Amino acid sequence: MTSRRVSSPLSPDSSDERPFPLLLALFVASGCAALIYEIVWFQMLQLVLGSSAVSIGVLLGTFMGGMCLGSLGLSRFVARRWHPLRVYAVLEIAIAVCGVLMLVAMPLVQLVYTAAVGHGVPGLLLRGLFAAICLLPPTVMMGATLPAVSRWVDLSPRGVSWLGYLYGGNTLGAVFGCLLAGFYLLRVHDMHSATFVAVSLNAAVALGAFALARARPQTTPRQESRDAEAAPTATPTTPAWIIYAAIGISGMGALSAEVIWTRLFGLLLSSTTYTFSIILAVFLIGIGLGSGVGSFIARRAPNPRRALGFAQLALVAAIAWTSWNITSALPYWPINPRLAGVPWAQFQIDFVRCLWAILPAACMWGASFPLALAAVARKGSDGGVVVGRLYAANTVGAIIGALGTSLVLIATVGTQNGERILIALAALVALLTLVPSLLPNRAAPRFGRRDAAWTLAIVGLAVVLGRNVVPVPPLLVGHGRFSALERTTQETFLYVGEGMNSSPAVTLDSNGVMSYRNAGKIQASSLPQDMRLQRMLGHLTTLIPAEPRQVLVIACGAGVTAGAVSIDPRVESLTIAEIEPLVPQVVAKYFGDYNDHVISNPKVHVEIDDGRHFLATTKQTFDAITSDPFDPWVKGAANLYTREFWELARRHLNPGGVVTVFVQLYDSGMAAVKSEVATFFEVFPNAIILGNTVQGQGYDVVLVGQAEPMRIDVDAMERRLTSPEFRPMLSSLLQIGFESASALLATYGGRAAELGGWLQDAEINRDENLRLQFLAGFDMNVDQRAEIYRGMIAFRHFPEDLFVGSPTTLADLRAAMTAP
Length: 820
Known about the structure:
The chain is an alpha/beta fold. It folds into four domains: 1-221, Growth Hormone, Chain: A; 234-472, Up-down Bundle (Growth Hormone, Chain: A); 474-518, no CATH class; 533-715 and 748-802, 3-Layer(aba) Sandwich (Rossmann fold). The protein contains 26 helices and 14 strands. The chain has helices at 19-49, 53-77, 84-116, 120-150, 157-188, 191-215, 223-226, 240-269, 273-300, 304-329, 343-376, 383-434, 449-467, 474-479, 528-543, 560-566, 582-590, 611-617, 643-651, 670-683, 714-722, 727-735, 741-745, 771-778, 785-793, 807-818, and strands at 491-496, 505-509, 514-518, 521-525, 550-554, 573-578, 604-608, 622-627, 653-664, 688-694, 697-706, 712-713, 748-751, 803-804. The strands form three sheets. The chain has an eight-stranded mixed β-sheet with strand order 7-6-5-8-9-11-10-13, with helices on both faces. A four-stranded antiparallel β-sheet has the order 1-2-3-4. It has a two-stranded parallel sheet with strand order 12-14. The termini are far apart.
């Protein structure tokens, strides 16, 4: 970087504004790259640190913390003699280098982390350390880009307005990055491809910034400008700290709202990766549009502080509008997702619903930043200092809001009171900016009637709207995207909770069917077909290995699978890895009669952790591992179906151990099921499929894998089940329609050697692409269960080398397998 001397810094008040649209285009591209990186890095790091709220909170806090450090550090460590655009270009190049290095360094980071991490507070601190190592270098540079360019602009009203446009353009670029990554780059390609697209954008931005710097040289600022204090001139009676506090509180509210509304919209629209991309894109659209409008107002407003106050006052009403829509209006719109002919039609409807509910509030938050900047800016000040401090204040508030809401607020007070707090925060900022005489400030006028009127109006509006915020409806928690279709359902909600990671519910219908619901749908129930699957999964896990002493169950659910495992007398220790702390408490209370009271069983230990993270960080090995996670379209669940995850499970198996997993055929397309099966077969080429059918039609299946060549001694299984100590297991099997081991094994549906032709076009789900979450999210509204199962068993034949037993036993098994 070199500095070139001319007469003065560029000012839109005194020079033509032709460079600013070019710079705006660079900021749009820069924002696009930044969001691609953010999505890719979060996906990569969640595979290592886990997908729990704690891990995501650590990642989000670290990401925004780096942005904060960058915004504050630029003015301290980069001299003003350097051309701002050259500084900007170098930052973009450095970000691109970090993007490439993340791809190279992540395997090493993962290796070191999994070798060193523990549980509890030390484990949490180590998560933060590794997140900081990975995220701080690039995010510090991202946070420094806007303060760097701010030095190129005089802080006149028109200059401040252009800075607001740059902020808004950067945000709208982030919208394109979010949608590009979520709907194309990661769906069609992989993390490497997405990263190199972002790197290319950084390179283009750097070249453009260098070219613009060459065409528009800048002088070293005058000494008096360098020493000028970043204090407001438009509102001289208002101390700068009030504006910094206001924008910090506003940032806190914005990120708190994003966490709360993402949770609620995840129920309403389903928690797919596409849903999260849509919600984030709409939020960013609102911030970008609001920033543009706020920048326009900042150029003309005689009192930007009061304009900021009015924006926050409007935000009070906008938050109430969003809350009302999510809880009282949108769940009952007459929309049936199954009528969507193609997924894109459903995505359009979801996008419109998000715009309708979220856009007003997001626009008000977006408008607040340029208005706050106009309120503290003074012509001749160091733009890097002013923008850096304001951006840092906003980011610190955002960190507090994101971490506090995701880790504490929702789990302790719920989304209803969380939204009331959002209204209170917006009202507080309105009071700070519209009634500054409330604060200890000698320069402010005495508190008068007008101030009293404003105070009563603001407080009164917040109280009235806050009181009208209602809790999340149980129907939405239980039925999610099908709430409108289930309004007349005859069921009783025995429990509705909002936990740190999810919102579980328990219902009892008029037929006496108990259902455990999460992610806006039934995850387990006492229906015969569900009980059969859950117990099949548990009993196969312990019946096939010779000595299943140590067993791991990933995902508690209703506890029925874990209960089926626990009643095997050979099991000495059973570990349940469950991500949501509420779930074990709930199922212990309501499903004890169905799950053999597994939670209170003395040989059972519940580990509250993401299943993948627990398995990656534990030193234990197991004789059997079974996994029954959320539907694969739920964001984060596909992490438990990748080839790398199954390799991890295989490494934690003792000799002769087995791995089992449930694969649903309902609410799933052919491509998603093939991906799940083919990925499992890649790691366990000896694996077999056993089917759970309803009236002869496919419903779901169980995959059973073993590292060694699989041999199942049917006679030995029969002897065990008929012995007195195994009587509880036999009773459990009888309750779900299996009178013997042969009847259970007669559900055999095929194995890898037989299904090669059927799986020929299957896409392998890997950590670097997580193909399954995109395939499953695309076809979650289709019903191809019959077609899938028919295609699967069309290749089935009796496996002579798999089952071992007497001729009579094998003849009976063959007959049962071929029976209609």
